[in-house]
Write a structure and sequence with these properties.
single chain, 413 residues, alpha/beta, Aspartate Aminotransferase, domain 1, 2 domains, 7-stranded mixed beta sheet, 3-stranded antiparallel beta sheet
Amino acid sequence: MKGLRTGLDRLLENIRELSGRRYGILSHAPAVTADMVPIHLALSRSSGEAPARLFGPEHGFYGVEQDMVASADETDPWTGAPIVSLYGDSKASLRPDPGAFDGLDLLLVDLQDIGSRYYTYAATGVWAAEAALAAGCEVWVLDRPNPLGGEVIEGNRRRLGFESFIGAFEIPVRHGLTMAELVLMALGPDARERGLSVWEIEGWSRDQAWEDLGRPWVAPSPNIPTARTSLVFPGGCLLEATEFSEGRGTTRPFELIGAPGLDAVALSDRLNRARLPGARFSPALFKPQFQKHAGRPCAGVRWFVKDPTTLAPYRCGVEILLALHELAPDRFFWRRDPYEFETDRPAIDLLSGDSSLRRALDKGQSLDAWLASWKGDEADFREERRPFLLYPETGAEGRPGSGPASGSTRSGA
């Protein structure tokens, strides 16, 4: 979209604001300028001062590590700045210690989220901001669009007792928030008084998805290679909780789903009979090169997005689980390995936010009541998020003109 300016673009236009600051950056590969310059290079060149420290989320500062792979501390070869990993080899490593920000007076947070509750950058962004503020370090969030758009909310909220790195917040799976809005909501109304500021996006409307923006997609993690992948992720990610492949190790992660020996035609027919809005499924054969079923031919389906505006990806993911359970009950097994360092609760419970989905499938019970409960969760969350929205709601379900209190954000030029 012509005229779109991210928080980073706007900071560069007001680079004097960074003068004299000893700053650190929590970021990754998609944090680039409109001219595709990485954030740490752009700020170093414009300000004349290199960042004192860089911080990387899961997948690392450069976005090259696979999921659940610890990143080591290293040195950036372009600026000489040390890189501190905020994703290590234990659960304790996920919450930064305030000491990580010693010597800094400012932390810049620029993370491209993909709009799903279980994508881990939201937790890292919030927890890093909390720790930095506790250390007396000011925090600026440089905002970016939600690639799924900001109007649609989909799914049940995470329940108490199911907190984790992939369920850090009591929100629906598809929440419709930008990273800055999520940080503001998580930290509460006094966050600005404690030193949090936001550099807002200009030229973005809540009804716009990534494909409406006219900007290149930079993969925020190795298995989100395209903007279209982010559309199916809210549903495809549920397959991580099973022994079926979710397409990792292929060029179409989360779009390819299957396992050795499945009846691909029957699965495709079953899913298409469900007439899921915006979705179509085709029989597929594929061979993952790593992770589940590596090197083995798999049969299953490829998930095509026919209409992004009507697609309900989380609902599609639930239907895929139901179809697999019906057609291949002897092959349907929940993940038994630890999931994001959690060992006491099944991965599917952490992803779905409670135990209802697992228990219903295991007992062969109807999902109708659980699916119907989403409507109330979605409506309640829409009301709760309104005070923290930085960009007005535009859809029929929204209320035009809602937004933050005056003076809550960096206005820039």
